[in-house]
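quick one: nicotinamide-adenine-dinucleotide bound model?
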Amino acid sequence: MPSNGKQQLTTGSSVTRRGFLAVGSAALGAVSLTRNLEGQMSQTRTEAWGRILNGKVAIVTGAARGIGRSTAVALAHSGANVIGIDICAVVDPRSGVEPATRAELDQTGEMVKSEGVQWRSFVLDQRDLPSLRRAAENINTEFGRIDILFANAGIQAFRPLLEMEDPDWHIQIDVNLTGTANALRAFAPYMVKQEHGRIIMTTSTQGRHGTLNGSAYSASKWGIIGLMKSAAIELGRHGITVNCLVPGLIDTALTRHEERYEQALQVAGRTPSGDKAVDEEAARKALQSKSILGVPWIDPAEMAPVVVFLASDAARMVSGATYDVTGGDSANNV
Ligand SMILES: NC(=O)c1ccc[n+]([C@@H]2O[C@H](COP(=O)([O-])OP(=O)(O)OC[C@H]3O[C@@H](n4cnc5c(N)ncnc54)[C@H](O)[C@@H]3O)[C@@H](O)[C@H]2O)c1
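yep, here:
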Protein backbone atom coordinates (compact mmCIF):
# COMPACT_ATOMS: atom_id res chain seq x y z
CA MET A 1 0.00 0.00 0.00
CA PRO A 2 1.50 3.31 -0.97
CA SER A 3 1.85 5.65 1.93
CA ASN A 4 4.26 7.99 0.28
CA GLY A 5 2.51 11.18 1.23
CA LYS A 6 2.09 12.16 -2.45
CA GLN A 7 -1.33 13.58 -1.67
CA GLN A 8 -0.09 15.97 0.90
CA LEU A 9 -1.86 18.97 -0.45
CA THR A 10 -0.74 21.77 1.76
CA THR A 11 1.99 22.44 4.16
CA GLY A 12 1.23 24.38 7.26
CA SER A 13 2.40 25.16 10.69
CA SER A 14 1.12 26.50 13.96
CA VAL A 15 -1.81 24.86 15.64
CA THR A 16 -2.40 21.21 14.68
CA ARG A 17 -5.51 19.25 15.50
CA ARG A 18 -6.63 15.79 14.56
CA GLY A 19 -10.01 14.68 13.34
CA PHE A 20 -10.82 11.01 13.38
CA LEU A 21 -13.74 9.60 11.46
CA ALA A 22 -14.74 6.34 13.11
CA VAL A 23 -16.11 3.52 10.96
CA GLY A 24 -17.81 1.14 13.34
CA SER A 25 -15.15 0.29 15.82
CA ALA A 26 -12.31 0.81 13.35
CA ALA A 27 -10.78 4.14 12.54
CA LEU A 28 -11.20 5.00 8.88
CA GLY A 29 -8.43 7.47 8.90
CA ALA A 30 -6.86 10.40 10.51
CA VAL A 31 -6.63 13.85 9.14
CA SER A 32 -4.35 16.50 10.47
CA LEU A 33 -5.69 19.98 10.12
CA THR A 34 -3.38 22.92 10.14
CA ARG A 35 -4.19 26.57 10.50
CA ASN A 36 -1.88 28.59 8.30
CA LEU A 37 -0.80 32.13 8.82
CA GLU A 38 -3.83 33.58 7.06
CA GLY A 39 -6.06 31.71 9.45
CA GLN A 40 -7.44 29.44 6.75
CA MET A 41 -7.83 25.76 7.45
CA SER A 42 -6.03 23.37 5.15
CA GLN A 43 -5.42 19.66 5.20
CA THR A 44 -2.37 17.48 5.24
CA ARG A 45 -3.04 13.77 5.33
CA THR A 46 -0.67 12.34 7.87
CA GLU A 47 -1.71 8.74 8.27
CA ALA A 48 -2.71 5.84 6.06
CA TRP A 49 -6.42 5.20 5.73
CA GLY A 50 -6.16 1.52 4.99
CA ARG A 51 -7.39 -0.01 1.71
CA ILE A 52 -11.03 -0.20 2.77
CA LEU A 53 -12.18 0.11 -0.85
CA ASN A 54 -9.67 -2.37 -2.23
CA GLY A 55 -10.50 -3.49 -5.78
CA LYS A 56 -13.71 -1.45 -6.00
CA VAL A 57 -14.54 0.48 -9.15
CA ALA A 58 -15.48 4.10 -8.51
CA ILE A 59 -16.85 6.69 -10.94
CA VAL A 60 -16.21 10.36 -10.13
CA THR A 61 -17.87 13.11 -12.16
CA GLY A 62 -16.29 16.55 -12.17
CA ALA A 63 -12.95 14.83 -11.59
CA ALA A 64 -10.68 17.39 -13.29
CA ARG A 65 -10.25 19.52 -10.20
CA GLY A 66 -11.72 20.73 -6.91
CA ILE A 67 -13.87 18.41 -4.82
CA GLY A 68 -13.92 15.78 -7.57
CA ARG A 69 -10.14 15.59 -7.78
CA SER A 70 -9.59 15.49 -4.01
CA THR A 71 -12.16 12.75 -3.65
CA ALA A 72 -10.87 10.76 -6.61
CA VAL A 73 -7.42 10.71 -5.00
CA ALA A 74 -8.87 9.73 -1.61
CA LEU A 75 -10.89 6.90 -3.17
CA ALA A 76 -7.70 5.73 -4.89
CA HIS A 77 -5.78 5.99 -1.63
CA SER A 78 -8.42 3.71 -0.12
CA GLY A 79 -7.79 1.12 -2.86
CA ALA A 80 -10.49 1.87 -5.45
CA ASN A 81 -9.84 2.01 -9.18
CA VAL A 82 -11.12 5.36 -10.36
CA ILE A 83 -12.81 6.47 -13.56
CA GLY A 84 -12.86 10.26 -13.86
CA ILE A 85 -15.46 12.04 -15.95
CA ASP A 86 -15.38 15.73 -16.82
CA ILE A 87 -16.51 18.06 -19.59
CA CYS A 88 -13.13 19.90 -19.60
CA ALA A 89 -14.66 22.86 -21.41
CA VAL A 90 -16.65 26.02 -20.92
CA VAL A 91 -20.06 25.11 -19.53
CA ASP A 92 -21.72 28.42 -18.71
CA PRO A 93 -20.19 31.38 -20.57
CA ARG A 94 -22.21 33.74 -18.35
CA SER A 95 -20.53 32.52 -15.17
CA GLY A 96 -17.27 33.93 -13.84
CA VAL A 97 -15.84 30.44 -13.27
CA GLU A 98 -12.76 29.44 -15.30
CA PRO A 99 -13.36 26.22 -17.25
CA ALA A 100 -11.56 23.01 -16.29
CA THR A 101 -9.11 21.58 -18.83
CA ARG A 102 -8.10 18.20 -20.20
CA ALA A 103 -4.64 18.74 -18.68
CA GLU A 104 -6.25 19.06 -15.23
CA LEU A 105 -8.19 15.82 -15.73
CA ASP A 106 -4.98 14.08 -16.77
CA GLN A 107 -3.24 15.50 -13.69
CA THR A 108 -5.97 13.97 -11.50
CA GLY A 109 -5.22 10.71 -13.32
CA GLU A 110 -1.53 10.93 -12.45
CA MET A 111 -2.41 11.51 -8.78
CA VAL A 112 -4.81 8.55 -8.79
CA LYS A 113 -2.30 6.23 -10.49
CA SER A 114 0.40 7.18 -7.99
CA GLU A 115 -1.77 5.41 -5.40
CA GLY A 116 -1.19 2.11 -7.25
CA VAL A 117 -4.70 1.72 -8.71
CA GLN A 118 -6.12 1.93 -12.22
CA TRP A 119 -7.39 5.14 -13.82
CA ARG A 120 -9.55 5.75 -16.88
CA SER A 121 -11.09 9.01 -18.00
CA PHE A 122 -13.95 10.16 -20.18
CA VAL A 123 -14.42 13.69 -21.44
CA LEU A 124 -18.15 14.19 -21.77
CA ASP A 125 -21.03 16.45 -20.82
CA GLN A 126 -23.24 14.96 -18.14
CA ARG A 127 -26.27 16.53 -19.80
CA ASP A 128 -25.71 13.94 -22.53
CA LEU A 129 -27.26 10.72 -21.24
CA PRO A 130 -26.31 8.52 -24.23
CA SER A 131 -22.62 9.48 -23.74
CA LEU A 132 -22.83 8.58 -20.06
CA ARG A 133 -24.48 5.27 -20.95
CA ARG A 134 -21.73 4.47 -23.47
CA ALA A 135 -19.10 5.24 -20.83
CA ALA A 136 -20.89 3.01 -18.31
CA GLU A 137 -21.02 0.14 -20.78
CA ASN A 138 -17.31 0.51 -21.59
CA ILE A 139 -16.36 0.62 -17.91
CA ASN A 140 -18.48 -2.41 -17.08
CA THR A 141 -17.01 -4.34 -20.02
CA GLU A 142 -13.46 -3.53 -18.95
CA PHE A 143 -13.75 -3.82 -15.15
CA GLY A 144 -16.70 -6.21 -14.86
CA ARG A 145 -18.34 -4.11 -12.13
CA ILE A 146 -19.30 -0.61 -11.02
CA ASP A 147 -19.37 -0.23 -7.25
CA ILE A 148 -19.33 3.47 -6.46
CA LEU A 149 -20.72 6.57 -8.16
CA PHE A 150 -19.69 9.97 -6.83
CA ALA A 151 -22.01 12.20 -8.88
CA ASN A 152 -20.30 15.48 -8.18
CA ALA A 153 -20.01 17.62 -11.34
CA GLY A 154 -21.76 20.96 -11.18
CA ILE A 155 -21.71 24.66 -11.99
CA GLN A 156 -22.77 27.85 -10.27
CA ALA A 157 -23.67 31.37 -11.36
CA PHE A 158 -25.52 34.24 -9.75
CA ARG A 159 -28.42 36.27 -11.19
CA PRO A 160 -31.15 38.18 -9.37
CA LEU A 161 -34.45 36.39 -10.07
CA LEU A 162 -36.05 39.35 -11.82
CA GLU A 163 -33.02 39.95 -14.06
CA MET A 164 -32.66 36.32 -15.00
CA GLU A 165 -32.88 35.18 -18.62
CA ASP A 166 -34.01 31.68 -19.60
CA PRO A 167 -30.48 30.30 -20.11
CA ASP A 168 -29.46 31.47 -16.61
CA TRP A 169 -32.12 29.22 -15.13
CA HIS A 170 -31.94 26.26 -17.52
CA ILE A 171 -28.19 25.71 -17.58
CA GLN A 172 -27.91 25.28 -13.81
CA ILE A 173 -30.95 23.01 -13.59
CA ASP A 174 -29.80 21.01 -16.64
CA VAL A 175 -26.18 20.54 -15.55
CA ASN A 176 -26.65 20.15 -11.80
CA LEU A 177 -30.00 18.41 -11.42
CA THR A 178 -30.61 16.68 -14.74
CA GLY A 179 -26.90 15.88 -15.16
CA THR A 180 -26.75 14.25 -11.72
CA ALA A 181 -29.90 12.26 -12.47
CA ASN A 182 -28.34 11.23 -15.81
CA ALA A 183 -25.25 9.89 -14.02
CA LEU A 184 -27.45 7.84 -11.73
CA ARG A 185 -29.55 6.56 -14.64
CA ALA A 186 -26.42 5.54 -16.56
CA PHE A 187 -24.53 3.75 -13.77
CA ALA A 188 -27.16 2.45 -11.34
CA PRO A 189 -28.42 -0.31 -13.69
CA TYR A 190 -25.07 -2.10 -13.31
CA MET A 191 -25.33 -1.81 -9.53
CA VAL A 192 -28.85 -3.28 -9.69
CA LYS A 193 -27.50 -6.29 -11.60
CA GLN A 194 -24.77 -6.72 -8.95
CA GLU A 195 -27.32 -6.20 -6.13
CA HIS A 196 -24.78 -3.84 -4.59
CA GLY A 197 -23.71 -0.24 -4.99
CA ARG A 198 -22.91 3.07 -3.39
CA ILE A 199 -24.12 6.38 -4.84
CA ILE A 200 -23.06 9.69 -3.35
CA MET A 201 -24.27 12.94 -4.90
CA THR A 202 -22.88 16.39 -4.26
CA THR A 203 -25.51 18.88 -3.22
CA SER A 204 -24.68 22.11 -1.34
CA THR A 205 -25.42 23.97 1.82
CA GLN A 206 -27.11 26.37 -0.63
CA GLY A 207 -29.50 23.50 -1.29
CA ARG A 208 -30.47 23.64 2.39
CA HIS A 209 -31.39 27.31 2.50
CA GLY A 210 -32.20 30.15 0.12
CA THR A 211 -29.36 32.00 -1.62
CA LEU A 212 -29.29 35.69 -2.53
CA ASN A 213 -29.18 35.93 -6.35
CA GLY A 214 -28.63 32.16 -6.46
CA SER A 215 -32.13 30.76 -6.91
CA ALA A 216 -31.33 28.48 -9.87
CA TYR A 217 -28.36 26.97 -8.04
CA SER A 218 -30.27 26.54 -4.78
CA ALA A 219 -33.21 24.99 -6.62
CA SER A 220 -30.92 22.58 -8.48
CA LYS A 221 -29.14 21.53 -5.29
CA TRP A 222 -32.38 21.26 -3.29
CA GLY A 223 -33.64 19.10 -6.16
CA ILE A 224 -30.64 16.81 -5.81
CA ILE A 225 -31.66 16.07 -2.21
CA GLY A 226 -35.14 15.08 -3.44
CA LEU A 227 -33.55 12.99 -6.18
CA MET A 228 -31.24 11.29 -3.67
CA LYS A 229 -34.05 10.43 -1.24
CA SER A 230 -36.27 9.06 -4.04
CA ALA A 231 -33.39 7.01 -5.45
CA ALA A 232 -32.63 5.65 -1.95
CA ILE A 233 -36.22 4.41 -1.72
CA GLU A 234 -36.25 2.86 -5.20
CA LEU A 235 -32.80 1.27 -5.14
CA GLY A 236 -32.56 0.11 -1.52
CA ARG A 237 -34.03 -3.30 -2.26
CA HIS A 238 -31.09 -3.91 -4.61
CA GLY A 239 -28.52 -3.35 -1.89
CA ILE A 240 -27.71 0.14 -3.18
CA THR A 241 -27.32 3.07 -0.80
CA VAL A 242 -27.81 6.66 -1.98
CA ASN A 243 -26.66 9.66 0.05
CA CYS A 244 -25.61 13.28 -0.38
CA LEU A 245 -22.46 15.16 0.48
CA VAL A 246 -23.36 18.72 1.51
CA PRO A 247 -20.29 20.96 1.12
CA GLY A 248 -20.14 24.40 2.66
CA LEU A 249 -18.00 27.05 0.98
CA ILE A 250 -15.05 25.22 -0.53
CA ASP A 251 -11.79 26.61 -1.90
CA THR A 252 -12.14 25.69 -5.58
CA ALA A 253 -12.33 27.48 -8.93
CA LEU A 254 -16.11 27.54 -8.44
CA THR A 255 -15.83 30.04 -5.60
CA ARG A 256 -12.60 31.91 -6.37
CA HIS A 257 -13.62 34.60 -8.83
CA GLU A 258 -14.99 38.13 -8.82
CA GLU A 259 -18.66 37.19 -9.32
CA ARG A 260 -18.57 35.02 -6.19
CA TYR A 261 -16.75 37.66 -4.14
CA GLU A 262 -19.37 40.21 -5.16
CA GLN A 263 -22.18 37.88 -4.07
CA ALA A 264 -20.53 37.29 -0.69
CA LEU A 265 -20.22 41.04 -0.19
CA GLN A 266 -23.84 41.66 -1.21
CA VAL A 267 -24.96 39.07 1.37
CA ALA A 268 -22.94 41.00 3.95
CA GLY A 269 -24.68 44.24 2.92
CA ARG A 270 -21.52 45.63 1.32
CA THR A 271 -21.00 47.15 -2.09
CA PRO A 272 -18.31 45.42 -4.20
CA SER A 273 -15.54 47.67 -5.50
CA GLY A 274 -15.09 45.83 -8.80
CA ASP A 275 -11.37 45.36 -8.04
CA LYS A 276 -10.78 41.61 -7.74
CA ALA A 277 -8.03 41.75 -5.14
CA VAL A 278 -9.88 44.27 -2.96
CA ASP A 279 -13.14 42.34 -3.18
CA GLU A 280 -11.41 39.02 -2.48
CA GLU A 281 -9.93 40.38 0.73
CA ALA A 282 -13.23 41.96 1.77
CA ALA A 283 -15.08 38.72 0.96
CA ARG A 284 -12.53 36.75 3.00
CA LYS A 285 -13.21 38.92 6.04
CA ALA A 286 -16.99 38.80 5.55
CA LEU A 287 -17.01 35.02 5.09
CA GLN A 288 -14.63 34.39 7.96
CA SER A 289 -16.67 36.45 10.40
CA LYS A 290 -19.83 34.57 9.35
CA SER A 291 -18.22 31.10 9.55
CA ILE A 292 -18.86 29.19 12.78
CA LEU A 293 -15.40 27.60 12.65
CA GLY A 294 -13.80 30.79 11.32
CA VAL A 295 -12.94 29.34 7.91
CA PRO A 296 -13.74 31.44 4.82
CA TRP A 297 -13.04 28.69 2.26
CA ILE A 298 -12.72 25.04 3.29
CA ASP A 299 -10.02 22.88 1.66
CA PRO A 300 -11.67 20.51 -0.86
CA ALA A 301 -9.76 17.59 0.67
CA GLU A 302 -11.97 17.96 3.75
CA MET A 303 -14.87 16.53 1.70
CA ALA A 304 -13.17 13.21 0.97
CA PRO A 305 -13.51 11.41 4.35
CA VAL A 306 -17.31 11.58 4.17
CA VAL A 307 -17.38 10.24 0.61
CA VAL A 308 -14.97 7.40 1.38
CA PHE A 309 -17.02 6.47 4.44
CA LEU A 310 -20.30 6.49 2.49
CA ALA A 311 -18.65 4.39 -0.25
CA SER A 312 -17.42 1.78 2.22
CA ASP A 313 -19.09 -1.37 3.52
CA ALA A 314 -19.14 0.27 6.94
CA ALA A 315 -21.91 2.58 5.67
CA ARG A 316 -24.17 -0.24 4.48
CA MET A 317 -27.01 0.88 6.77
CA VAL A 318 -26.73 4.55 5.77
CA SER A 319 -29.07 5.59 2.95
CA GLY A 320 -31.29 8.56 2.13
CA ALA A 321 -29.10 10.80 4.28
CA THR A 322 -27.25 14.09 3.90
CA TYR A 323 -23.74 14.54 5.30
CA ASP A 324 -22.70 18.15 5.84
CA VAL A 325 -19.11 19.38 5.72
CA THR A 326 -19.72 23.09 6.12
CA GLY A 327 -17.35 24.40 8.74
CA GLY A 328 -20.34 24.87 11.03
CA ASP A 329 -22.73 26.58 8.61
CA SER A 330 -25.06 23.58 9.08
CA ALA A 331 -25.90 25.01 12.50
CA ASN A 332 -27.97 27.64 10.69
CA ASN A 333 -30.07 25.12 8.75
CA VAL A 334 -33.01 23.02 9.85
N1 LIG B 1 -16.93 24.99 -4.07
C1 LIG B 1 -17.97 25.10 -3.25
O1 LIG B 1 -18.00 25.97 -2.38
C2 LIG B 1 -19.12 24.14 -3.34
C3 LIG B 1 -20.06 24.18 -2.32
C4 LIG B 1 -21.15 23.32 -2.37
C5 LIG B 1 -21.28 22.44 -3.42
N2 LIG B 1 -20.36 22.42 -4.42
C6 LIG B 1 -20.57 21.48 -5.50
O2 LIG B 1 -19.46 20.62 -5.56
C7 LIG B 1 -19.33 20.12 -6.89
C8 LIG B 1 -17.89 20.28 -7.33
O3 LIG B 1 -17.61 21.66 -7.37
P1 LIG B 1 -16.15 22.29 -7.17
O4 LIG B 1 -16.28 23.30 -6.13
O5 LIG B 1 -15.15 21.21 -7.06
O6 LIG B 1 -16.03 23.09 -8.55
P2 LIG B 1 -15.05 22.94 -9.79
O7 LIG B 1 -15.55 23.92 -10.79
O8 LIG B 1 -13.65 23.02 -9.36
O9 LIG B 1 -15.33 21.45 -10.29
C9 LIG B 1 -16.51 21.10 -10.97
C10 LIG B 1 -16.13 20.19 -12.13
O10 LIG B 1 -17.35 19.76 -12.76
C11 LIG B 1 -17.10 19.77 -14.17
N3 LIG B 1 -18.37 19.91 -14.88
C12 LIG B 1 -19.18 21.00 -14.88
N4 LIG B 1 -20.21 20.80 -15.70
C13 LIG B 1 -20.06 19.57 -16.23
C14 LIG B 1 -20.82 18.80 -17.15
N5 LIG B 1 -21.94 19.29 -17.71
N6 LIG B 1 -20.40 17.55 -17.44
C15 LIG B 1 -19.27 17.07 -16.89
N7 LIG B 1 -18.50 17.75 -16.04
C16 LIG B 1 -18.89 18.99 -15.71
C17 LIG B 1 -16.20 20.98 -14.37
O11 LIG B 1 -15.53 20.93 -15.62
C18 LIG B 1 -15.29 20.92 -13.17
O12 LIG B 1 -14.11 20.20 -13.42
C19 LIG B 1 -20.33 20.90 -7.74
O13 LIG B 1 -21.49 20.12 -7.90
C20 LIG B 1 -20.64 22.10 -6.88
O14 LIG B 1 -21.91 22.63 -7.14
C21 LIG B 1 -19.27 23.24 -4.40
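Residues 61-62, 64-68, 86-87, 91, 97, 100, 125-127, 152-156, 175, 179, 202, 204, 247, 249-250, 252-255, 300 surround nicotinamide-adenine-dinucleotide (CB under 6 Å).
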